Amino acid sequence: MSIHVDTVSFAAGNTLIVDGVSVAAEKGKVLGLLGPNGSGKSSLLKLICRLRKVQSGVIRLGDDDIASIPRAALARRIALVEQQATTETQVTVMDVVRLGRTPHRGPLSSWSTGDDSAVAEALSRVGMHDRAGQLWHTLSGGERQRVHIARALAQTPSELLLDEPTNHLDIQHQLDILGLVSRLDVTSIVALHDLNLAAMFCDRLVVLQKGRVIAAGIPEEVLTADLIAEVFGVRACVEKSAVHGRCNIQYMASGA
């Protein structure tokens, strides 16, 4: 496995946020994290990239405990795309994506042709190369999200973590962003709210509730009407889509 979370727990004050979670992300595949607000999805992503400290359990990248990996080396390997990262500074698309090279450069090192190549390739992969000189604040929400992913790709990571990458985006941009992620040759863990998008683009799913794993497996095994009712509190009909072959969820109005 590329990322292996083994019985990990994390608390904020007296509140247990992540409670004995075990998760395995297969190399080169997309793992979706599902669950209601407060279920621990964002906290788990931050634990994996060591923005939060594990209180018990172990997180491994390959065979290595992340606690033993120097921060610079970890930053070169794992890239995190957080929700709605923004800035008021007058920066260009190129400026933002160049930040992705920070883990690869020492305090006194000069910008290299290798850095240029990594940035150019990242911009091309998200279809934003022709916007390199455009000011950040003039971009749409979907374009900004593409640039954030480009910044992460400029790190040349082997693991990519995304926290609600489709939040507040229109349908077209939701499909574009997740389609892009599913085609990348990296291990991806994506926290999502939309169950249909998770079914379409994720190879495997993990469902969290109150910090615990409730279910894990391929979408067809995990996304059942009973689980959706138990975890999300809604009635749903789950059928195989005639369009993409994955499960499709239709929600039922209360009282219907």
TrEMBL record:
One of its GO terms (molecular function) is ATP hydrolysis activity. PROSITE patterns: ABC_TRANSPORTER_2. CDD domains: ABC_Iron-Siderophores_B12_Hemin. It comes from the Bacteria. Keywords: ATP-binding, Nucleotide-binding, Transport. SUPFAM superfamilies: P-loop containing nucleoside triphosphate hydrolases. Residues 3-235 form the ABC transporter domain. The keyword Chloroplast does not apply. PANTHER family: ABC TRANSPORTER ATP-BINDING PROTEIN (PTHR42794:SF2), HEMIN IMPORT ATP-BINDING PROTEIN HMUV (PTHR42794). Belongs to the ABC transporter superfamily. This is Histidinol phosphatase. It comes from Metarhizobium album. The lineage of its organism: Bacteria, Pseudomonadati, Pseudomonadota, Alphaproteobacteria, Hyphomicrobiales.
